[in-house]
Prior knowledge:
Elements: H1 7-17, H2 23-40, H3 53-70, H4 78-85, H5 88-98, H6 104-118, H7 127-139, H8 149-165, E1 175-176, H9 177-182, H10 197-201, H11 214-217, H12 236-241, E2 258-259, H13 261-269, H14 275-289, H15 294-302, H16 306-310, H17 315-320, H18 324-343, H19 346-369, H20 374-390, H21 394-405, H22 421-429, H23 435-449, H24 454-460, H25 478-485, H26 532-543, H27 562-579, H28 604-614, H29 621-636, H30 640-647, H31 660-675, H32 681-692, H33 705-733
Antiparallel strand pairs: 1-2
Helix pairs in contact: 2-3, 3-6, 5-6, 5-7, 6-8, 7-13, 8-13, 8-14, 13-14, 14-18, 15-19, 18-19, 19-21, 20-23, 23-29, 26-33, 27-33, 29-33, 32-33
Protein name: FHF complex subunit HOOK interacting protein 2A
Family: Belongs to the FHIP family.
Organism: Pan troglodytes (Chimpanzee)
Amino acid sequence: VISRFSPSLIQHMSSELAPSLPLQEDFVYHWKAITHYYIETSDDKAPVTDTNIPSHLEQMLDILVQEENERESGETGPCMEYLLHHKILETLYTLGKADCPPGMKQQVLVFYTKLLGRIRQPLLPHINVHRPVQKLIRLCGEVLATPTENEEIQFLCIVCAKLKQDPYLVNFFLENKMKSLASKGVPNVISEDTLKGQDSLSTDTGQSRQPEELSGATGMEQTELEDEPPHQMDHLSTSLDNLSVTSLPEASVVRPNQDYNLVNSLLNLTRSPDGRIAVKACEGLMLLVSLPEPAAAKCLTQSTCLSPLLVFSHKEDASAFPGKRALISFLSWFDYCDQLIKEAQKTAAVALAKAVHERFFIGVMEPQLMQTSEMGILTSTALLHRIVRQVTSDVLLQEMVFFILGEQREPETLAEISRHPLRHRLIEHCDHISDEISIMTLRMFEHLLQKPNEHILYNLVLRNLEERNYTEYKPLCPEDKDVVENGLIAGAVDLEEDPLFTDISPENTLPNQEWLSSSPPATPDHPKNDGKTEVHKIVNSFLCLVPDDAKSSYHVEGTGYDTYLRDAHRQFRDYCAICLRWEWPGSPKALEKCNLEAAFFEGHFLKVLFDRMGRILDQPYDVNLQVTSVLSRLSLFPHPHIHEYLLDPYVNLAPGCRSLFSVIVRVVGDLMLRIQRIQDFTPKLLLVRKRLLGLEPEGPIIDHITLLEGVIVLEEFCKELAAIAFVKYHASSTP
């Protein structure tokens, strides 16, 4: 009859009926009950759940917790002393490794996890704790989808949490590789002598370590790491198929004689088919890379396969999740890599980011971006655009910026614009024959400009404006001083007296009382006055660029200039916050100190943007929106040279130079000639605007639709530039 009761129930009944023993005697009793099982039992095929072992282990844990609660904080009791002195954890490791009886590995993992989690005093500094813990770590992740996977990840994560509490302890887990290589082979058969008596309980199995090959530690097959160039991407699914990487030969990698098996085991489990296990493994890695121990960071980046794994072998994902799901899988993994590098200790972060740069950006992305297939270019640029938007780690962002733009900071010359081939190719794609490629590449640059990295703007624009050699220096003569005192700039042309602007009407200008607090800062070239005239004229110069006959916004409610003021104020504030730590000057470099004799080249990026702006009347509406969006982003940056070059209509341009304002003036001149040849221009223009706003249903195709849409974009862009100019002057005059 008694055989029908479970072993755990029998154990519980016997514990209740037994006399109360001192804790240490009780603890030793439960441990000897476990060891006697191996001595007395001949049937080693019965599962561990059919034995009393799980109950004895649970009782041992309860006793250790009770003992700690009854003693002063930090004091080690006799039960814990017994566990440490008799190397109980070492013996349990050996039993777990042999998985004898079946399921014992699972029980050992649970015991270790609960011991580390429930005992408050620091255990890992003890050699008889961290040594068996390290060896048990090596057993985790050896085979995917095993019955013990859940217990393995719980154990690894509790170890990571303990290291996060006391980072110096991680040094106990950097194994000496040469020592482990010299001591191969742990017998899986547990001898009877091993389990007899107190002396045999202290048998040291600590020197037995199985070496692991680093390639095996990641679970990657060699075929996944073949040294072959990625194929061209013809569509999204194939692009993700080809996100494989090249593994450096083991012999060519200089590694210290250390293993970081906690990382290797977690890396194995990131590939678990159980998503919950993989996520927990990623969380464990996040904890480890953030540890502030230099030795661990060095070992992590040089002696584990974390860096190669971060650069994504996606053949599995692409085959299991073709198309959209493969993309989601890739972006989720990239987001994890970004966060991992963001949290990592500085040395580790730099090494991991460089690995992503070399193995993924250069090894995988660059060939895709440099190809000639339009579909391949569009797909790879869309992926790059998404990556640009997604990166938040400063270290990874820096590597990505160097990949896209190069590291050059000297002024560009027309003869050397292809010095960094990828940069040259991407900028050329902003003016591609395919409108889709142009729009996608422009979007990528627009989001790149919003990233908090000073090199982006300097490389694309600022390095070419440093010497202000787009200007023609005209020293003030006595006659000019009177002009300056009256609120004008020496040598500037009064646009309101220019024949191009003779149709200015009062409602298109802003009343003087709106500019009372908008005085610009004093500079040698712009002497301080009350500020009203200069700001008033600059803003009105943009507002009045498009002639009245070509304007349509005043016929539609809610499309006034004031709507741009609110957006410009918010955006300028955001840009100022980004640029604050870059310590930009508050005023332009004095012309006397500039090298005005050097030939001026606006740079490849501005050249392409200005060229496209010059064709605004002949380009598709969506292309024009994207071109003007990038130019307005550039205009928002609070650098005096950018402001002068892009937003000052009165700058004295050197011969052969052009500015944003001069480009728009040429477009307006062309527009005024073409308007005269279009019958019913104004009614057609208004109808197109209402259709774009959804105020009118789509109807018959209107002739000259591209030009009409271009005129509307031009008018809105001029209002936007006027708003940005006003907001920037207003901000500079506010303390």
